[in-house]
Specification:
- The structure is a single chain.
- The protein has 81 residues and is mainly beta.
């Protein structure tokens, strides 16, 4: 952990619906997303290229990496399941 924000976290997938077919997912980070509805939560993007990763299912755990150590709402990337 650097700064105030834990930049690597294990999270549960809450949505895999992506109208752009970019394999984006939604995960709920605590405490940043605790009061947000699912539509208000930012997407997490796959860290690996589409040909090299497996898209997780709802309920599975993924490793989420944040782009900033000072902003819990920064860009999100995931690896998993």
């Amino acid at each position: 952990m650097v700064g105030d924000i834990q930049v690597v976290r294990f999270c549960k997938v809450i949505s895999t619906i992506d109208i752009l077919d970019a394999d984006r997912i939604k995960v709920r980070l605590s405490p940043e997303d605790n009061s947000k509805e699912i539509d208000e939560i930012d997407y997490a993007f796959p860290l690996l290229p589409k040909a090299l990763h497996v898209k997780p299912k709802v309920g599975e755990a993924v490793l989420v990496l944040l782009a900033s150590t000072t902003d819990g709402n920064s860009q999100r990337y995931y690896i998993g399941p």
